[in-house]
Amino acid sequence: MAKKKTTTKKKATKNPTAKTKKNLSLSRQQKVIIGSFLFFLGIALFFAFISFFFNWKIDQSEIAQFSKRSAIAKNWLSKFGASVSHFFIFRGFGVAALFIPVLTSLTGVYLFFDLNKKRLAGFWFWGTLVMLWISIVLGFIKQEGGLLAGVIGYEINDFLRDYVGFIGTVLILTFFAIIYVVVRLRYTPEKIAASIQQAQQTVATNATDQTSQSTTKNGKHTTVESPVVTTIAKDPINAKITNIEEDTTTTLESTKDLSTTNVLNDLYTKDSERTSTDDSMQKLVIKSNDDPEDLEMEVESVVEEELSENLSDKLVKDFGEFDPTLELGNYQYPSISLLKDYTGQTGGITIDQGELEENKNRIVETLKNYKIEIAQIKATVGPTVTLYEIVPEAGVRISKIKNLEDDIALSLAALGIRIIAPIPGKGTIGIEVPNKKSTIVSMRSAISSSKFQNAEMELPLSLGKTISNETFVVDLAKMPHLLMAGATGQGKSVGLNAILTSLLYKKHPAEVKFVLVDPKKVELTLFNKIERHYLAKLPDTEEAIITDNTKVINTLNSLCIEMDARYDLLKLAMVRNIKEYNVKFRARKLNPENGHKFLPYIVLVVDEFADLIMTAGKEVETPIARLAQLARAIGIHLIIATQRPSVNVITGMIKANFPARIAFRVTSKIDSRTILDTGGADQLIGRGDMLYTQGNDLIRIQCAFVDTPEVERITDFIGSQKAYPDAYMLPEYSGEESGTGLDIDVSERDKLFNEAAEVIVTAQQGSASLLQRKLKLGYNRAGRIIDQLEAAGIVGPFEGSKARQVLVTDLVSLKQLLDGE
Ligand SMILES: Nc1ncnc2c1ncn2[C@@H]1O[C@H](COP(=O)(O)OP(=O)(O)OP(=O)(O)O)[C@@H](O)[C@H]1O
């Protein structure tokens, strides 16, 4: 189907040329008239030329008088014949000029019958060459010049003789003769040899045929012969062939008298008859192709299919895949040595056997008090807590143990006991008891772990270590957004730093950009140093890190615009997500001239979301919710941290869009429920002890610890390297107030105002990004035009991140509206 389409297209594109060709070519009537004229002209010339050979001497002496009517010419075609012949024969090619009338007549015939023009051109080309060659050869033979060679033949021969001598001239002429034979007549030495051989064979076969024929005729071996004859007769072609064979043999018969009498010979004859049949078939075929020139064949012009895919392949072949990191090609990732090694300080995880034994005994005893017998107990020592896995005796209800959580905690006299009943996938009951001496999980160990180093993730985060001392690595791109909550001083800021550090260690500045919102003004300031490497900001803003809550609204809306623009790009590229888009872009399958560019991931980090909600309220909630709902596919990921996990901060809408959550220690079970939908966070021990969920299981993790000096060293290291000229620019967002109440003068309107209005009305979508795309405008200009359209009453007022309403329904109404102004 697709192929068909291409052919039609090709035909369509071919048409203009075909049209001009048609205009130039002659109509059928014209062809018949001109064809007849040329045919007769050729005959006239032929007679004129022939008679010229007899009368040329007389006519030549009179030639100067031919302009006079009274002058008489002997030529059969009188003065015209004499003059033309003189010109072509005497002054031209001599005897060889006879080719001219032949070719002229032939042209007439071709035109008359509308035959193949290409072949005619071939006749003219080779005819002229042969005429010239004959003329030179004759000039070579008869060197005194004159009628035989004509002036041209004589002069060229003379010229050749002067420069290459006798032998040279002979060689040149022979060489041209060979060219003619090989190219025009298509003879090669092998072909000639083969045809001689074939001729010999035919004679030999014919002789044998005659033998066979004569024996058959003698009627001696009819029984052997008959089946072959019948098979042959069945086939009309073969029957025909037999006839021909018979004819040949009859003639041969009269000349030769060959007879074989034994059966062996007869059989041989039979075989040779078959061969001869094959041969004559061959002969027949050859006969029909005897003069291949007679058979007309129209060669369809070859239409090359367009191979658009190949362009990208070629680009990749020539320049390699697009490398977004090339602009900062010498960028060095921070080294692991910038991070502090805490093992010396805490001595790593130590297993205190006494403590383990003591805890085990207490657990067993406490459970015994409640009449719960234990069949088996196993301990796993983690960095901050030890997990005691117990297998109760048969018949013990799990809910009973779960209900005794507080009692067990009391009798173990330990804060932060958490009971997991049962441990998912294990069928055991877990009791987590904090270690007396906790171990710091250093960021260094989290980063250098092979799990993180070899992580094939888009945005890998090394969060810390699980209870079984495994480094916990997750992909932010898969989360796709993260909610972090915990009471003050429990490790939230450290957690955020760990996340950012993970990304800095794994991602090139071209691949990820951060939008940092820090109302506390002090937590994220260190990242200012890497503004031109990793941060994104609004145009015309001083600081990349947003500390002013009113500016957050603009940034969030700007991110929404970026999101819409990215979705448009994805749609254009016909891909479903940023990963596929970037793969296609790297493979040079997306043309930057169409607005395509490599899209870095954008990570929005909001430290203190509660503060933001308090000051900005609904205005931030809408864009945050929109981003959370839609931004995952286009690479915008949100990390929101809050101290106050109350329901008016972590609303249902936020929770619904943030399946991945981290809870640090909180003060109440209610807070834990707000964050995790279950208790547990209230029993954490703080200092980076956290629970992570991505929708189902809760995982207890000791957050990796990264101190401010470490972050400072990393940002210093990155900041000291060559950077981009500016931070990553987010689309400009003009804010609500700038759009309303506009009174823009008609004369001040943009030149593309009318065009833009048409685009908006046709698409029934009042968005600046649409104008940007359709009219290839910058964001600012598109925004201004939208304002002008609003002032003109074509689009409605600003509606947050949604596209504006289009107030004019069709182009006719638009025209009326604009004309009425
Ligand atoms: N993962 C950790 N390992 C060890 N200690 C930690 C860890 N995280 C935090 N701490 C300790 O807890 C202290 C407070 O942490 P952090 O500043 O992150 O708390 P916070 O929740 O951000 O508090 P706030 O909300 O008041 O800013 C740190 O100074 C540090 O001593």
UniProtKB/TrEMBL annotation:
<keyword id="KW-1003">Cell membrane</keyword>
<dbReference type="InterPro" id="IPR018541">
    <property type="entry name" value="Ftsk_gamma"/>
</dbReference>
<keyword id="KW-0132">Cell division</keyword>
<dbReference type="InterPro" id="IPR036388">
    <property type="entry name" value="WH-like_DNA-bd_sf"/>
</dbReference>
<feature type="compositionally biased region" description="Basic residues">
    <location>
        <begin position="1"/>
        <end position="13"/>
    </location>
</feature>
<dbReference type="Pfam" id="PF09397">
    <property type="entry name" value="FtsK_gamma"/>
</dbReference>
<keyword id="KW-0812">Transmembrane</keyword>
<protein>
    <submittedName>
        <fullName>S-DNA-T family DNA segregation ATPase FtsK/SpoIIIE</fullName>
    </submittedName>
</protein>
<keyword id="KW-0238">DNA-binding</keyword>
<dbReference type="GO" id="GO:0005524">
    <property type="term" value="F:ATP binding"/>
</dbReference>
<keyword id="KW-0067">ATP-binding</keyword>
<feature type="region of interest" description="Disordered">
    <location>
        <begin position="1"/>
        <end position="22"/>
    </location>
</feature>
<dbReference type="Pfam" id="PF01580">
    <property type="entry name" value="FtsK_SpoIIIE"/>
</dbReference>
<keyword id="KW-1133">Transmembrane helix</keyword>
<keyword id="KW-0131">Cell cycle</keyword>
<keyword id="KW-0472">Membrane</keyword>
<dbReference type="GO" id="GO:0005886">
    <property type="term" value="C:plasma membrane"/>
</dbReference>
<keyword id="KW-0547">Nucleotide-binding</keyword>
<dbReference type="GO" id="GO:0003677">
    <property type="term" value="F:DNA binding"/>
</dbReference>
<dbReference type="InterPro" id="IPR050206">
    <property type="entry name" value="FtsK/SpoIIIE/SftA"/>
</dbReference>
<dbReference type="Pfam" id="PF17854">
    <property type="entry name" value="FtsK_alpha"/>
</dbReference>
<feature type="transmembrane region" description="Helical">
    <location>
        <begin position="163"/>
        <end position="183"/>
    </location>
</feature>
<dbReference type="GO" id="GO:0051301">
    <property type="term" value="P:cell division"/>
</dbReference>
<feature type="transmembrane region" description="Helical">
    <location>
        <begin position="88"/>
        <end position="113"/>
    </location>
</feature>
<feature type="region of interest" description="Disordered">
    <location>
        <begin position="204"/>
        <end position="223"/>
    </location>
</feature>
<dbReference type="InterPro" id="IPR041027">
    <property type="entry name" value="FtsK_alpha"/>
</dbReference>
<dbReference type="GO" id="GO:0007059">
    <property type="term" value="P:chromosome segregation"/>
</dbReference>
<dbReference type="InterPro" id="IPR002543">
    <property type="entry name" value="FtsK_dom"/>
</dbReference>
<keyword id="KW-0159">Chromosome partition</keyword>
<comment type="similarity">
    <text>Belongs to the FtsK/SpoIIIE/SftA family.</text>
</comment>
<dbReference type="Pfam" id="PF13491">
    <property type="entry name" value="FtsK_4TM"/>
</dbReference>
<dbReference type="InterPro" id="IPR025199">
    <property type="entry name" value="FtsK_4TM"/>
</dbReference>
<feature type="domain" description="FtsK">
    <location>
        <begin position="469"/>
        <end position="673"/>
    </location>
</feature>
<dbReference type="InterPro" id="IPR036390">
    <property type="entry name" value="WH_DNA-bd_sf"/>
</dbReference>
<feature type="transmembrane region" description="Helical">
    <location>
        <begin position="32"/>
        <end position="54"/>
    </location>
</feature>
<feature type="binding site">
    <location>
        <begin position="486"/>
        <end position="493"/>
    </location>
    <ligand>
        <name>ATP</name>
    </ligand>
</feature>
<dbReference type="InterPro" id="IPR027417">
    <property type="entry name" value="P-loop_NTPase"/>
</dbReference>
<feature type="transmembrane region" description="Helical">
    <location>
        <begin position="120"/>
        <end position="141"/>
    </location>
</feature>
